[in-house]
Amino acid sequence: MKFKSQAVAKPYFIFALILFAGQLLFGFILGLQYVVGDFLFPYLPFNVARMVHTNLLLVWLLFGFMGASYYLVPEECDTELHSPLLARILFWVFAAAGVATILGYLLVPYAELAELTYNNLLPTMGREFLEQPTITKIGIAVVCLGFIYNIGMTILKGRKTVINMVLITGLIGLAVFFLFSFYNPDNLVLDKYFWWWVVHLWVEGVWELILGAILAFTLIKVTGVDREVIEKWLYVIIGMALISGLIGMGHHYFWIGPGEYWLWLGSIFSALEPIPFFMMVMFAFKMVRQRRYDHGNKIAVTWALGTAVMGFLGAGVWGFIHTLAPVNYFTHGSQITAAHGHLAFFGAYVMIVLTIISYAMPIMRGRKQGNPIAAQKVEAAGFWFMCLSMMGITLALTVAGAYQVALQRIPEDAQALSFMATQDKLMPIYWVRLAFGGTFIIGVLMYFASFFVASKQAVTESQPEPVAAAVEAA
Amino acid sequence: MADQFNKGMARNIYYGGGVFFFLLLVGLTFDTMLELPKRDNRENITAQVAHGKEIWEENNCIGCHSLMGEGAYFAPELGNVFDRYGQGSEENFRQFMQSWMAIQPLKAKGRRQMPQFHLSEEEVNDLSAFLIWTSRIDDNNWPPNKQG
Lengths: 474, 148
Fold this sequence. Notes:
Helix content of chain B: 40-55%
Structural class of chain A: mainly alpha
Strand order of the largest sheet of chain B: 1-2
Strand content of chain B: under 5%
Helix content of chain A: over 70%
Shape of chain A: globular
Order of helices and strands of chain A: HHHHHHHHHHEHHHHHEH
Radius of gyration of chain B: 22 Å
Mean pLDDT of chain A: 96
Number of strands of chain B: 2
Largest sheet of chain A: 2 strands, antiparallel
Number of helices of chain A: 16
Largest sheet of chain B: 2 strands, antiparallel
Distance between the termini of chain A: 27 Å
Low-confidence stretches of chain A: none
Mean pLDDT of chain B: 96
Oligomer: heterodimer
Number of helices of chain B: 5
Distance between the termini of chain B: 48 Å
Strand order of the largest sheet of chain A: 1-2
Largest interface: A-B, 81 and 72 residues
Shape of chain B: elongated
Strand content of chain A: under 5%
Order of helices and strands of chain B: HHEEHHH
C-alpha cells in the first residue's frame, strides 16, 4: 500500500462480501420457491425475497465500487485521499441505510413500508430494482455525492491519469443517471422509458467505465505492462461500450410503447455490444502474456482474466442471443432474460469487484505479493466452483427459457400453454438450476475460507520475479 | 494494436463517440416524446388509472409478475391480462378481478401463492382500470399470443 488512506477501502470490501453472502442465501430461497411454490409462504413471499436478492446485489456492488475507488484513486493520484474521515462516515451511513432498508423489506409488508416512509409525498417505490423507499434513495444519492466529492478532490490535487479520469466519469454518470429514479409519472410508458435511464445506462453504460478502470488498474499492477499501452486499450474498449451501448438501449424499447424505429436501432446497436466485451478478453490475455514480471498474487490475475471472459459470455454472448427484435419478440421477459441477467451481472460486475478485492485485500493485510500459496489454491478452487456453477445456472435457465418460448410463446392462442402450465413443465430444469445454486454457494464458502488459510504463516516479502523474456529484452 | 494507432486517437474515439452517441440518444428521446402521445393512449389516464398504478407499485406486484415483459418471471404477464380474462368486456374483467383478488392465497399445496393484499373494492377496480389502460398501449403487438 503506497498511501495510508487507501486502507479505508477495507471495511467497504468486507461489508460488500457480507452482503454478497446474504444475496446468495436469498437467491437459494428463490430457486427453491421456483420448485416448491409455497416454500416459506406467507412469511417470506417470493417478491420480498427477490427484492432482497437484487437490492443486496446492487448495494454490495456499490460498496465494492466505492472500496475499489478509495483503494486505487490515491495510488493513481500519487497522493493521500482527500478525506479518509468522510469515507469512514459515509461507510457507516450507507451500511446503516442499507441494513435498515433490507430489514424494512423483511419485517414489514411492502405496502406498509411505503406508508411508513411517506411514499405518497414522492412516489418512487414498487418499480423493479428501484424498490427502495424514497428516503433510502435520497440517502443513496447523498452518499454517492459525498463519495464523488471525496474522490474528485483527491483527483484534483493529484495526478490525473487516464484510469482516474475514466473512473470518475463513470462514477459521476452513476450518480447523475440515478436521479432518474426520482421520476415516476402516472404514464407507465414514460415511467418505463426513463426507468431504463437508470438501469440500462448504469449496467450497459457508465458501469462499464468503472469496470474498465478497475480492470486496467489491476492489470497494470499484476503485469507491469507499460501504462501507455493499457490506457490505449481502455479508451478503445469504453469508447466502443458507449458507442454501442447508448443507442443499444433501444433493445429495451421494443415492446413498452416507443415507436418502431427502435426495433431497428436497438437491434443493430445492441448487436455491437459484445464487441467491447470481446476486446476486453483480448486486452486482458494480451497484457498478461506481455507481462514484465510474475506477480506473486496469481489468483488476482486469474480473477482479472476470468471477469473478462465471463463478462463477454454473460453480457456479450448471452445478451446477443436474444437482442435482435425478431428473436426478442418471443424471448422478452422469459427465462432467457433471467439466464442473461445472472451471467452478465456475475461475469462483469461481481467478478470485477472480486478481482480488485483479490488484488488489494492481501496488500492491505501486509502481503505485497499476495496471500500464501495455500490460500491462493483454496481461492482458485472457489473461483472455478463459482464460475462453473454460474455457467450451470445460466445453461439451465437458457434451456428453461427456450422450452418456455416453445410451449407458451410460439404457438397460436388456442394451442399455447398458459404461463403456470408451462412452469410446471419446466420443473426438472429448475431443480438443475437449484443444484448449481448450491454448488455456487459451496464455491463462495471456499472463497471465504481462503481468507483464513495459513493466515498465521509468515509472509515472505519477496520482490516480483522478472519474466525470462523481459530479462532477455533488457 | 498497431503502432500508428496511438493513445490520442483512442482518446478521440472515446470522447467523440461517447458525446456523439449520447447527443443522438437525447435527440431520439425528444423525437420519441413527440411520438408517444399517439401510442400510449395517455388521454385515457384517468384518476382511477393513476391510482391503480400507485396500488400496483405499493404492493410490489412487479416482484412476481411482469408488466409488458418487465419485472419478475415467477407469475404471469399482466400487460395483456385484460385480453386474457376480460373477454373484451371491462365489466367482466372488473368482476373477475374482484373475485380473483378475494380468494387469494389459493393454498394449493406446493403451488406458487399470491398473498392476500386486503384491497378494498374500489382499490381493485382502480387496479383493474390501470391494467385495462396498460393493455391498450401500442407496444408493437407484444406479446405474441394471449398467454403472455
